[in-house]
């Protein structure tokens, strides 16, 4: 049942190219337009919406951060982001001009469901992004987008996350066109790049031995820091969560620009820093941040686009991802982070698929 893989997690990491393809293809018609069958919001209804709130837990919430970025960029609607367990208790300002998007792999997470109900009660329209057909969250939402990742068994979410990213990109592009704020050219260019991602993801998986040997040397850290800017900051939160939940190493992700506002105090000789530097417009800033932590003795693993070799001068090890648009790098850059977390956990002898204290679906509060 694990298809020859040692763990479900590794199998599911390898299923990502297919999961991406399966989530995109059924949504495209013969004119290369995005058709979202279960999203019923009309152009007029969308035009009335003046704010979107994305609400979820854990990995799904981190996918939501990228959703915020994509919607603001492609559909030009302001987006707030919140953790479901915070949203539901803070009496958020929500009205009938608000669209709330809940993201949940299982579609059963208690806090996410409660947040959705809270939003509906306040008059919001609710859209669900979920991997389970007929789940409670899908039944209670007005609009639904199903991620076709297939069943996810490992507690640590991997393929569900990447399909959530794809969902958010498709929703954002679709909204941009519906609202008339996104040019057809840009839409088509992003779509073409989205379709090219499965093959690029395969390439990263093909080179996974690099991450395994890196993990074999870096598994004994007390603490790991993930840094990035823009989209990379969002992806590093997911990378950090992956590491801590399956390897039990303390890890945290912080926006690289925040380093000098406190966290840099913790960087010392040998501290592992994973630095994401995939964004062209932020590349130089990231190089300076890498130099800053190197100067304090950090061991830096960088993740960069394969065209940006300059970074080899600053980082100790560089993991390359294939070239893609800056807006879409998240789908690729998360894969080395998943593999790094996985191999570190294996090297530490952890029960990767069933980490202690964690359940696959959190239906209690
Ligand atoms: C981490 C992980 C959790 C879930 C979270 C939400 O790998 O799996 O953080 O993402 O519990 O679960 P869903 O998406 O089912 O609502």
From TrEMBL:
<keyword id="KW-0808">Transferase</keyword>
<keyword id="KW-0032">Aminotransferase</keyword>
<comment type="subunit">
    <text>Homodimer.</text>
</comment>
<dbReference type="GO" id="GO:0005975">
    <property type="term" value="P:carbohydrate metabolic process"/>
</dbReference>
<dbReference type="GO" id="GO:0006002">
    <property type="term" value="P:fructose 6-phosphate metabolic process"/>
</dbReference>
<feature type="domain" description="SIS">
    <location>
        <begin position="210"/>
        <end position="355"/>
    </location>
</feature>
<dbReference type="GO" id="GO:0097367">
    <property type="term" value="F:carbohydrate derivative binding"/>
</dbReference>
<comment type="function">
    <text>Catalyzes the first step in hexosamine metabolism, converting fructose-6P into glucosamine-6P using glutamine as a nitrogen source.</text>
</comment>
<keyword id="KW-0963">Cytoplasm</keyword>
<dbReference type="GO" id="GO:0006487">
    <property type="term" value="P:protein N-linked glycosylation"/>
</dbReference>
<keyword id="KW-0315">Glutamine amidotransferase</keyword>
<dbReference type="GO" id="GO:0006047">
    <property type="term" value="P:UDP-N-acetylglucosamine metabolic process"/>
</dbReference>
<dbReference type="GO" id="GO:0004360">
    <property type="term" value="F:glutamine-fructose-6-phosphate transaminase (isomerizing) activity"/>
</dbReference>
<protein>
    <recommendedName>
        <fullName>Glutamine--fructose-6-phosphate aminotransferase [isomerizing]</fullName>
        <ecNumber>2.6.1.16</ecNumber>
    </recommendedName>
</protein>
<dbReference type="GO" id="GO:0005829">
    <property type="term" value="C:cytosol"/>
</dbReference>
<feature type="domain" description="SIS">
    <location>
        <begin position="42"/>
        <end position="181"/>
    </location>
</feature>
<feature type="active site" description="For Fru-6P isomerization activity">
    <location>
        <position position="360"/>
    </location>
</feature>
<keyword id="KW-0677">Repeat</keyword>
